[in-house]
Amino acid sequence: MLNKNKASSFSNSSYTFKAYIFLINTVGIIIYLFHVDFLVLPLKHWVMIYVLIASVLIVNHFLIYLPPKGNSISMDSSIYLASLFMFGLPSTLLILGIFSLIYALYRKRIEWWKHLYNFSMYNFMIISTYYTFLEAGGSVGTTGIQNIFPYIISLIVYFGVNITLLYFYFLFMYNEPFKGVLNFGLVREVGMTYSITLILSLVLFVLLKTEKYFGVFLFTILIVMLSIAFKKLLYLYQEASNRVNRDHLTGLYNHGFFKETLKEQFSDCKLLKQPLTLAFLDLDDFKKYNDRNGHLQGDRLLAFFGKLLQQAVEGTNFTVARYGGEEFAILMPNTTKEDAYAFLNRLRKEVNDTYFEGVEYIPYRCLSFSCGIAEMEKDMHESDELIHRADQALYYAKAQGKNNVQLYDKHNMCLDEIKFKQDLEALEQQVKFFLSKDVYTYRHSKRVFKYALEFGSRLDELTDHERQTLALGAIIHDIGKIEVPRDILNKSGKLEKHEWEIIKKHVTWGREIVAAEKRFDELLPLVELHHERYDGKGYPYGLKGEEIPKLARILCIIDSFDAMTTERPYQPTKTFEEALEEIERCAGTQFDPVYAAKFVAFVRKHYLPLAEMEQLN
């Protein structure tokens, strides 16, 4: 069902959404009036109708709460289905109509159109289920094994109509594609709920058949007791969850919970094409404060600052956590980096004006923090990339003198030459393992590095940082082949299917190897995704177009070019020109067409003349 507690502004909705609501409500009312009949029911049916209405009201008051995240379900569908199977359509529609009117008067704070939409949804579901039940051979008022198949089929229809109407509701409200609105997780969760609904509806059906009013009483008591029991269970669950997920000092979420939440939000926002922004905050000169005031007072400062952050995000959908030490993180879904900057810079000034004992002895003479902000971009593959960028922006903010907020800007976030050389030396040591196992992979990695270094330096759209990242990723991109058996790596003939599957795993093995050292996190997309294809037919994930990170798309072209032109005994080798023609032919399918054209031009200008001279000699 549509969540009756979630308010959204109808006046600000799109025209398509308003038209959809108007259509469903209008048709729902018409078919209700067409099927309901207030005159044909005998008095004893009216007594049962009033009893069932009371049961529906009680059931909707005592919702069954389920962990996690305060989910809840109402068992009113069980009552409607039991009534449908026992008394038929007119009685059930009367129960629905009278309950909906009472509930609308009772819950006046809910917008009228939501009451009407829920009423119309139930109409569609109940009426379609009734006719399905009859068409499947079901008999109203009859229990027995012969009705099991009609029960199951009619419930599937009930479930399907509900999911379909909800799908279009969210589709028109948020204007999102099918996969972003209706996913397997939602279908699975709702399906489980309706499985419970079916069982409870059959329980009530049997009680109505044998005990009538007392049966309704027993069923209602059962639901109330379940509600109380699950509410207690939820309380215990949340208590245990808070102990696991909360930082004991500040009361904020801890590092582990935050990382899991970030992964979920990253996946959801990427799927729905919604903005997601991450901010890292670091208390300025906290070590100096600790040295002067002691660690106990330092803990009080951390708790105080955590409380300020918690108050700042109240009323928002932001998640704030203590990331580690004096570093905090705020995750801001549906928020652009510009809005995040305005929010955090305003918070920074408020913190500056908030006194805490002892801050007058640190450099700024007030409580202050440095902040780095990064927004998810469409070519990001994992949440760790967002963390890395926010961390770089924080580093830059501290380098700018602290007590400031900085947005991630790739033009400012460049590695220095000394660090680049140190990283390169460390990666080359790992690649040297190939010398004893597969000298061809070692030499291939060195050549791809050389191409990446030279080609990257000629791409004006890349920053210095991106050029260095591309080069480092190139030297280490095939490190996962360390795990591939020697006989498969050096096989001269065509690979068997199972051998090819092993070769394909080198990208995920490589990712695991590189991920062992956090300093190389930014290279992970290049190692893992350099065999993804622009048309979505690559591996390991089948990413397509700009879903593949830019540097991985570039590396794919360079890697393929060298693989085609590498000389190996007993294997055909393409000339430079033949390889370039192959890249041009596959531009737009295997390769990014823009970078394919630039690479072809680069090779023809800087390498082809040399290759032709070698052939002449």
Number of strands: 7
Radius of gyration: 32 Å
Looking at the structure, what is the overall shape? globular
**Tally of helical segments:** 26
- Average pLDDT reading: 84
Main pleated-sheet profile? 5 strands, mixed
Oligomer: single chain
Kindly report how far apart the N and C termini lie.
78 Å
Strand order of the largest sheet: 4-5-3-6-7
Summary tags:
617 residues, mainly alpha, 26 helices, disordered N terminus, disordered C terminus
Give an overview in words:
This protein is mainly α and 617 residues long. It contains 26 helices and seven strands. Strands 4-5-3-6-7 form a five-stranded mixed sheet, with helices on both faces. Strands 1-2 form a two-stranded antiparallel ribbon. β1 and β2 form a beta hairpin. It starts with 14 loop residues before the first helix and ends with a helix. 35% of the residues are buried.
List the helices and strands and how they pair.
Elements: H1 15-35, H2 43-61, E1 64-66, E2 71-73, H3 76-87, H4 89-106, H5 112-135, H6 148-174, H7 178-181, H8 184-210, H9 213-245, H10 255-272, E3 276-283, H11 286-293, H12 295-312, E4 319-324, E5 327-333, H13 337-352, E6 369-375, H14 383-399, E7 405-407, H15 417-431, H16 434-437, H17 439-457, H18 464-476, H19 486-489, H20 497-504, H21 506-515, H22 524-529, H23 550-565, H24 576-586, H25 593-606, H26 608-616
Parallel strand pairs: 6-7
Antiparallel strand pairs: 1-2, 3-5, 3-6, 4-5
Helix pairs in contact: 1-5, 1-6, 2-4, 2-9, 3-4, 3-8, 4-5, 5-6, 6-8, 8-9, 11-12, 15-18, 17-18, 17-23, 18-23, 23-24, 24-25
